[in-house]
Amino acid sequence: MEAVRAAPMDSDLDQQNRALGASTPEELIEWASERFGEKLIASTSFGATSAVMLHLVHRLAPRTRIICVDTGYLFAETYQFAEELIKRLDLDVRFYAAQMSPARQEALYGKLWEQGEEGVKRYLQINKVEPMQRAIRELGAEGWIAGLRSEQTEHRAGLRRIDRQDGRLKIHPILHWTGEQIASYMERYDLPYHPMFEQGYRSIGDHHSTIPTTADMDPRDGRILGKTRECGLHLPLTEEENQSLKSSGL
């Protein structure tokens, strides 16, 4: 690996956050694009307000390859919404899915998401973690933009705008944005919400584990897959998961 590429991995995150932590989302994305070039990726779930992060990337780093992990259990509306945004924003989206089809998984293991925390963990490993890690490896990603926000989960509340996950830098441009700021950006650029948003689906994942919420509820209460309300993509890999990926050639 060239020295210019290795530097971001070895640099002092505290120093980087002091220098860039107060930057606007636009400034942070421009920094990431200049720093990583073709080694930069972004991730999206095509969720309720995913248009915000995708629009920012479209405006400021249009060549960035965007990863969407397709579990095979997304709502039909999510697939349709994805196609709408891809065309509107001219996005370079790469869909990655599990190496085992949903039908085969259910035939062999049953509905893993109904089998307690261990079943959920296995479901996430097969359908989300492994496909994302494969995407990162195949695309040679060294920088990763994600639209996480600190108010979403306890884990995300502890993140920094520039962080490290599994050996690469993770950039969170809108980490400290509030729901009001998200709504304001959506209105400013006339961006569409996920078509199910108006039905109360404010946090949208797989159809078997997503329910609508009311205004007095936390949006993540609509995600009923596991206790943490985290999909697994944005958590550091455990040693066991690392070994599993290595043994599979990833």
Report on the structure:
- This protein has 250 residues and is of the alpha/beta class.
- The protein contains ten helices and six strands, in the order H-H-H-E-H-E-H-E-H-H-E-H-E-E-H-H.
- It has a six-stranded mixed β-sheet.
Low-confidence stretches: 1-10, 241-250
**What's the helical proportion of residues?**
40-55%
Report the top-level CATH class: Alpha Beta
Q: What global shape is seen? A: globular
CATH architectural group: 3-Layer(aba) Sandwich
How far is it from the N-terminal to the C-terminal residue, by CA? 18 Å
The CATH topology comes to Rossmann fold
Strand content: 5-15%
Summary tags:
single chain; about 250 residues; alpha/beta; Rossmann fold; six-stranded mixed β-sheet; 10 helices; about 10% strand; disordered C terminus
List the helices and strands and how they pair.
Elements lengths: L2 H8 L2 H8 L4 H12 L3 E4 L6 H11 L4 E6 L5 H14 L2 E6 L4 H8 L6 H24 L3 E3 L8 H4 L4 E4 L2 E4 L7 H10 L50 H9 L3
Parallel strand pairs: 1-2, 1-4, 2-3, 4-6
Antiparallel strand pairs: 5-6
Question: What's the short story on this structure?
Answer:
Helix content is 43%, strand content 11%. The chain is of the alpha/beta class and 250 residues long. A six-stranded mixed sheet has the order 3-2-1-4-6-5.
